[in-house]
Amino acid sequence: MEKSEKKEKIVSSNPTEEGDEVKLSQAPPEEKHSKKRKEDKDKEIEELKKKLEEREKEAKEHYDRLLRVAADFENYKKRAAKEREEWTKFANEDLMKAILPFIDNLERAINHAEKVLDTGVMIEGVRLTLQQILQTLNRFGLAPFESVGRPFDPARHEAMLVVESDQHEPDRVVEEFQKGYLLNDRLLRPATVSVSKLPEKEYQAK
Fold first, then answer.
1. E strand or H helix at 41, and its extent?
2. For the segment 87-128, what is each residue's pLDDT rounded down to a tens digit?
3. DSSP characters for 97-166?
4. How far is it, in rounded angstroms, from Cα 101 to Cα 83?
5. Please, are residues 109 and 126 in contact by the beta-carbon 8 Å criterion?
6. Which of 197, 206, 151 is nearest to 170 (CA)?
7. Are 193 and 152 in contact (CB under 8 A)?
8. How do residues 53-71 score in pLDDT, each as one tens digit?
């Protein structure tokens, strides 16, 4: 009888041990949630680090591209400045070449005048050379404009004198001291002129 009782006691103690093992194997729910939250947070941090690295890489690429563009633009400005300087130096090259023959003719006329007494030949030669110069400059857009007898125009004329005249209408160009010129229909130089006005007696009579 005692043996059977002991056996029953031993058997009856086993379920208690199994229950303890079950309790040990099962972690509390709060611990599980805490562990999952930590894993999610670590994962999120890794993703943020990855995105940050990508953004830093993109920013570096943009910065490098910006530096290249800035360098290209600086080189362009230098080239443009050099080209502009070259153009300014030689913009009138064709005009200078066209005028040189007339300078040669004037020099020949002066040399010839020193050897002859007939100045009429020299005058005619100079007049012809001047005409050729004006024709050449006309090809480049230069053109004189007539002023004498025309109404005074402040946009084209510069009045040096005002003269009384009963032979001209008031505010008319009487005399031209220096011819005016247009360059491609734009005023290059105004003509310096004298302008008419009514004589004082006629003005008072009116």
1. helix 29-90
2. 877 777 788 788 888 878 887 877 777 776 677 777 888 888
3. HHHHHHHHHHHHHHHHHTT-S-HHHHHHHHHHHHHHHHHHHHHTTEEEE--TTSBP-TTTEEEEEEEE-S
4. 29
5. yes
6. 197
7. yes
8. 999 999 999 999 999 999 9
With tokens 């005023």, the residue in question is 187
Q: What distance in Å separates the CA atoms of residue 179 and residue 142, rounded to the nearest whole number?
A: 12
Q: Are strands 180-183 and 142-145 parallel, antiparallel or unpaired?
A: antiparallel
Look-up: residue for tokens 């064709």? 94
Q: What is the DSSP string of 47-92?
A: HHHHHHHHHHHHHHHHHHHHHHHHHHHHHHHHHHHHHHHHHHHHTT
**CA torsion angle for 179, 182, 186, 190 (degrees, to 10)?**
-10
Q: Which helix (H) or strand (E) holds 197?
A: strand 191-197
- Return the amino acid letter for 13: S
Task: Say which residues have a Cβ less than 8 Å from residue 158's Cβ, sequence separation at least 6.
Answer: 190, 191, 192, 193
Q: What is the pTM of this model?
A: 0.53
